[in-house]
Specification:
Elements (H helix, E strand, L loop, with lengths): L3 H6 L1 E5 L11 E2 L15 E6 L16 H10 L4 E3 L5 E3 L2 E7 L4 E6 L12 H11 L22 E2 L4 E5 L7 H4 L24 E7 L3 E6 L12 E6 L2 H9 L5 E2 L4 H5 L7 E16 L9 H10 L2 H8 L4 E3 L22 H11 L5 E7 L5 H13 L4 E7 L4 H4 L6 E7 L3 H8 L14 H11 L4 H18 L2 E14 L2 E2 L18 E2 L1
Parallel strand pairs: 3-12, 3-13, 16-17, 16-18
Antiparallel strand pairs: 1-6, 2-14, 4-5, 6-7, 7-9, 8-9, 10-11, 11-12, 13-19, 14-18, 14-19, 15-19, 20-21
C-alpha cells in the first residue's frame, strides 16, 4: 500500500523494515549442547577460516574470500543484508522505498556511530559508493553490480536519508547493496590498514595470512557483543580441524563431510549445518576449444553421475543440482527436468564436436575441501565415454583469481546469494568473476531487461529464461547443492545455521562462550 507521504513524493514502498534475527544453529554431535540458559558476557573467541596468504586484506571493498568477509563483518556494517532465504533485511538502512518507475530509491539510516564516536550520515554512504565506483580502481568487488547508480544525481536528504538515482530502472537495488564488497565506511576513511567502522568489533590488529583481532564495541547500534574479543585466524583445512580438536579454537569454518562424520557425542564438538547452502560444480571456458562449441559443453554435463558425486564427495550431505544456480531461491525456474547421466549421448556430442579426441586438464585446488575429490571422481566418470582428463592442483591462495585467466576446465564452489547477483557477478560480459568467459551481448541485454521489470511474475519469467539458456549452452556444470558445514566446540553457543553471504553467517556479535 502507498502511504500518503509516499504518494505526495511519488514514492512506492518496495521493502519494509523486516526484523533480522539470529537463529540458533542446527547442530549435530553433542546432544543438548546447542543451547545455554542465557548468554554469558566475556571471553575471546578464536575462529579459523581458509587462508589466502598475503592477498588477504582489511579493505572491505576488495577482499572476496570468506576470511576477508568475516573480518569485514566484524568491523563494518552494510546498508542491507540478506536473510537465510536471500531476502533483503535492514542493517544500517532501517527502511527503503523507490519511486514508481524504479529509477530513484531512498534509504533511511538508523542512528549509528563509528568506532571513533562520530555519527553515521548520508554523506558517509555517498562517499562509500563513490569509493566503490571509483573509475581508477579495478579491484572494487561491487563496482560492476552498482554501476547503475548515478552518483552525479544522487544526494543526501538531511543527515539520515540518502537518495540514490539510477541510470536505468532496477527492481532489486537493496539486494545489490547486500552483496560482498558493499560495507559502509566513513567519509574520513583513507587507510585500509587502520579501519574505523560501525560494526560490533573495533579493529585491533591484522597480519595477512595469519590473524585478525577485534575488540567489542560497546556503542554498536544493535547492542554490544557478548564476547570481549574475537580472533579470526587463517589456516588450511586440516590445520583448522586439528586446532578445533586440540581446543585451540572454538570455530572452524567450512569443514568437509569426512571430518563431519568423525564428530560424535562426547567429542566436545558439534557440526552446524546450513542445508543446501552452497553449489558445487565445474567451470568450462566457453571462449576456447573445445567448450566454445556448446555441444562439447553439453556432452561433459551429460557425463556427470550427480548422485554419486553427492554421495562420495559430499558424504550424502546435499542434493543433486541441475546446472542452474539457486534452487529454492526466488527466480529459480520451475518444471525443468533433472539432467540425468547419458554416456552414449555424451559420447556422440563429444565426438561430433571434436572434444573426444582431446586430452583435457582439470585445474583444481585445495581452496575448498570438496574440489580435489570431485575432480578425480569426475575424471573417472568421464573415462566411461573415452574422454581423458588429467587433474592438476594449483595453490589455494591464488586459485580463485587464477581461474579467471587460466584453465579450460576448473573447479567451482559458491555460497548462497540471490540469483540476479550470481548472474551479475559471474555471467555478464564484464562480470568480475566470469570464470567461464561467457560473453554474449544479447544475454547481457536480456538480464538488464529482467532487472528493470517491475512486475514480479514477468521478472521471474525473464530470469528463468536466462537460467535455462545457461543450462543448455553455458559453461557451468553444477552437479550438487552442498550443505554448508562448520564445526564448533560445545562451549560455543548461539551459532546460526546460516549459509555464507547472509546476515547470520560468521556473525560473532551474537555468540557466547559457556
Amino acid at each position: 500500500m502507498v502511504s500518503a507521504a509516499a504518494s505526495r513524493r511519488g514514492f512506492l514502498g518496495l521493502a519494509g523494515a523486516l526484523a533480522a534475527t539470529a537463529a540458533l544453529g542446527a547442530c549435530e554431535g553433542e546432544p543438548g549442547t546447542g543451547r545455554a540458559a542465557a548468554p554469558r558476557r566475556g571471553g575471546t573467541l578464536s575462529a579459523a577460516f581458509p587462508g589466502f596468504g598475503a592477498r588477504e586484506t582489511m579493505d572491505p571493498h576488495v577482499g572476496r574470500q570468506f576470511v576477508d568477509m568475516a573480518r569485514h563483518k566484524a568491523v563494518f556494517d552494510k546498508l542491507v543484508d540478506l536473510d537465510d532465504r536471500l531476502r533483503p533485511v535492514p542493517r544500517l538502512a532501517e527502511r527503503w522505498q523507490s519511486n514508481a518507475d524504479l529509477t530513484v530509491w531512498r534509504f533511511t539510516l538508523r542512528s549509528a556511530r563509528f568506532h571513533d564516536g562520530r555519527p553515521l550520515t548520508a554523506d558517509d554512504v555517498l562517499f562509500t559508493l563513490a569509493r566503490i565506483l571509483d573509475p581508477s580502481s579495478a579491484e572494487r568487488l561491487a563496482k560492476s553490480s552498482l554501476s547503475l547508480i548515478d552518483l552525479g544525481r544522487s544526494r543526501a536528504v538531511g543527515t539520515r536519508t540518502v537518495e540514490l538515482a539510477l541510470h536505468r530502472p532496477h527492481a532489486e537495488l537493496p539486494s545489490l547493496l547486500a552483496f560482498t564488497g558493499t560495507s559502509v565506511v566513513s567519509s574520513r576513511y583513507r587507510d585500509p590498514a587502520r579501519p574505523v567502522g560501525t560494526g560490533p568489533f573495533r579493529f585491533g590488529s591484522f597480519t595477512p595470512g595469519r590473524e585478525f583481532t577485534g575488540h567489542r564495541f560497546d556503542g554498536h547500534w544493535g547492542g554490544a557483543a557478548h564476547l570481549d574479543r574475537v580472533r579470526i585466524l587463517s589456516a588450511e583445512s586440516e590445520a583448522r580441524t586439528n586446532a578445533l580438536r586440540a581446543g585451540e579454537t572454538d570455530y572452524a569454518h567450512e569443514v568437509n563431510a569426512t571430518f563431519a562424520r568423525t564428530v560424535t557425542p562426547g567429542s566436545g564438538l558439534r557440526i552446524v549445518s546450513a542445508p543446501h547452502g552452497g553449489i558445487e560444480g565445474l567451470l568450462l571456458k566457453t571462449d576456447r576449444p573445445p567448450f566454445d562449441d556448446p555441444e562439447a559443453a553439453l556432452g561433459l554435463k551429460l557425463l556427470a553421475d550427480r548422485p554419486r558425486l553427492v554421495d562420495v564427495v559430499l558424504g550424502g550431505r546435499g542434493a543433486v543440482a541441475n546446472d542452474m544456480y539457486g534452487k529454492g531461491f526466488a527466480y529459480y525456474p520451475d518444471g525443468v527436468p533433472q539432467r540425468e547421466r547419458d554416456v552414449s549421448e555424451a559420447k556422440r556430442l563429444l565426438r561430433r564436436s571434436g572434444a573426444l579426441n582431446r586430452k583435457l586438464t582439470l585445474y583444481t585446488s585445495t581452496a575448498a575441501g570438496s574440489f580435489v575429490g570431485a575432480a578425480h571422481l569426475f575424471a573417472q566418470q568421464a573415462a566411461d565415454a573415452g574422454l581423458r582428463i588429467t587433474v592438476t592442483t594449483g595453490p589455494p591462495e591464488t586459485y580463485f583469481t587464477d581461474i579467471l585467466r587460466t584453465g579450460t576446465l576448473t573447479s567451482h564452489r559458491s555460497g548462497a546469494m540471490p540469483i540476479p547477483s550470481y548472474l551479475a557477478e559471474r555471467l555478464l560480459s564484464d562480470a568480475p568473476q566470469n570464470a567461464t568467459a561467457w560473453h554474449h551481448k544479447d544475454f547481457d541485454r536480456d538480464f538488464l531487461a529482467a532487472q528493470s521489470t517491475r512486475d514480479t511474475a514477468e521478472r521471474t519469467r525473464r530470469y528463468g529464461a536466462l537460467q535455462r539458456r545457461l543450462r543448455d549452452t553455458g559453461g557451468e556444470l553444477l552437479w550438487g547443492q552442498s550443505d554448508w558445514l562448520n564445526a564448533v566446540s560445545t562451549r560455543l553457543h548461539g551459532v546460526a545455521a546460516a549459509p555464507p553471504n547472509t546476515v547470520d553467517w560468521a556473525r560473532f556479535d551474537t555468540v557466547w562462550l559457556a
